[in-house]
Backbone:
């Protein structure tokens, strides 16, 4: 029996583990992949305080080592089912059941992939899913944004502070984004739209040099030159195992209050899986710290 089980070993889960261990909680982190989660797929990080530049896998390794040295247990496995009401809480990991008095859900979210040739090859070398993380690498360059929702338009405008032109490739002839975002984007001279257009291939040599696109109305194809491709076609929260818990919003993100508490006593959430306005390493880490302190207070009240 653990005091605290943390689902997910990215920045949110590792920070939660760090704070929990420093509060003397017997803690386990369950992670299906490598320590650090999405950090493992992130090349250059220049917006995590304390590091002017660090590689994602290096930051993951520092965070993991710091937390493990405090005695947190690490388990590789996927949580496929949960019983969260009452005491104790039970997590199903394969055929095993893990019991804890409190749970922090830090299972993250993943960007949807375009799944076209070149996308995987140039990930981190011009293909990005995070303008806040990577925008500054495209100062004075030409970038593409793929998508037509709020994220594509908002992040496209964010990119104009760095890039010379931001060309938004939209597969329909209208945007799905909220009207006020559309109005702002249409007024921005650096933002251009190419309608009815899908990306068929991301082109490059050692890094991205352009995209091959197809017009879905007339079937014509073209090669557009550019230095970066920011893909914003939606996200998947890793929350399928929470389907019947009643703590998810309509998009599958976990609803919490400011103390990271869900509607179920003793269950908290942190990081990208949470219904939150910002999904960054620093916000995930900070969520993890708050969630661990809230779990500590909950355990003290039992
Ligand atoms: P989204 O609303 O699901 O929009 C995804 C966009 O990508 C749509 O335009 C979609 O086109 C397009 N798309 C999907 N698959 C594609 C493909 N294979 N190729 C080309 N285009 C493709 O996702 P989101 O923009 O990330 O937003 C997610 C949620 O967060 C939304 O509820 C949004 O309102 C919210 N959000 C809000 C704010 C804000 O309030 N400021 C900011 C960001 C996000 P179709 O329309 O043709 O399907």
Residues:
């Amino acid at each position: 029996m653990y005091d605290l089980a943390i689902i997910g070993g990215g920045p949110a889960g590792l920070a939660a583990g760090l704070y929990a261990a420093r509060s003397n909680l017997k803690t386990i982190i369950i992670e299906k992949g490598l320590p650090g989660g999405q950090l493992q797929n992130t090349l250059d990080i220049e917006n995590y305080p304390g590091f002017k530049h660090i590689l994602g896998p290096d930051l993951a390794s520092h965070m993991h080592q710091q937390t493990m040295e405090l005695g947190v247990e690490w388990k590789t496995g996927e949580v496929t089912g949960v019983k969260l009401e009452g005491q104790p809480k039970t997590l199903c990991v394969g055929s095993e059941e893990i019991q804890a008095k409190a749970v922090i859900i830090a299972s993250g979210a993943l960007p949807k992939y375009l799944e076209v040739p070149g996308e995987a090859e140039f990930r981190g070398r011009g293909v990005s899913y995070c303008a806040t993380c990577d925008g500054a690498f495209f100062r004075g360059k030409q970038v593409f944004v793929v998508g037509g929702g709020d994220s594509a338009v908002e992040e496209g405008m964010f990119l104009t502070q760095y890039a010379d032109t931001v060309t938004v490739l939209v597969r329909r002839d209208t945007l799905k984004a909220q009207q006020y975002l559309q109005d702002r984007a249409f007024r921005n001279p650096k933002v251009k739209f190419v309608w009815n257009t899908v990306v068929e291939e991301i082109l490059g040599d050692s890094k991205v040099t352009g995209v091959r696109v197809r017009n879905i109305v007339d079937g014509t194809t073209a090669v557009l030159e550019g230095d970066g491709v920011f893909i914003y076609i939606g996200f998947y929260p890793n929350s399928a195992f929470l389907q019947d818990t009643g703590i998810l919003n309509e998009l599958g993100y976990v609803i919490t209050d400011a103390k990271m508490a869900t509607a179920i006593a003793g269950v908290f959430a942190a990081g990208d899986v949470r219904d939150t306005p910002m999904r960054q390493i620093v916000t995930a880490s900070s969520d993890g710290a708050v969630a661990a302190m809230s779990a500590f207070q909950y355990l003290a009240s039992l």
Summary: The first helix runs from residue 11 to 22. The longest strand covers residues 96-105.
